[in-house]
Amino acid sequence: MGGPGAFWCNAPPLKEVRDAHRRFIVMAFNFERGVGEMLESYGHRAESIMEYVFRYVPEFNDQNLWKRFTRYDRIAPGRAEVGSIHFAPNSERDYDWGNRRKVLSHSQAWYDFPDLSAAPRMENCSVWGDGDIRRHHLWWFRHLPHVGGQTYGVPNNWWEYILDPNRTL
Predict the structure, then answer these.
(1) What is the pLDDT of the chain when averaged over all its residues?
(2) Are 164 and 46 spatial neighbours (Cβ–Cβ below 8 Å)?
(3) Mean pLDDT over residues 18-23, rounded?
């Protein structure tokens, strides 16, 4: 990312951007890699931006919805949500998208955001693509909130931030 107020976006901010009047993100895809890796790169962009958007929202009582969204069972046993671009709800390590171990997950609730009251259910990789990088990442992106309104002072359409880094709080 470069421009005024640029922040970490899967890389340090560009410093020598003289005439920029707004933030911008430079992305390029390596044609020697697959679509799954392209989606992963975009997922890191989403993670960097959403981490920045929620930087002042406390984690107390699950108010930091980004921290809640990215929870997975290894770091929050019994409280998994959607996970991160590297960690599915049941991942034991990075890129462990094909893990068959079932865990209690609230991932389904995110389809009804901002109502996150749906009961958790037992899930494993069969829900997010059986280890296929593309299917996992598309599943993850579909869970990102994209509705009107605000929750804890943050607009509920997270895609606005991911697409335009100038919209961040």
Answers:
(1) 95
(2) no
(3) 90
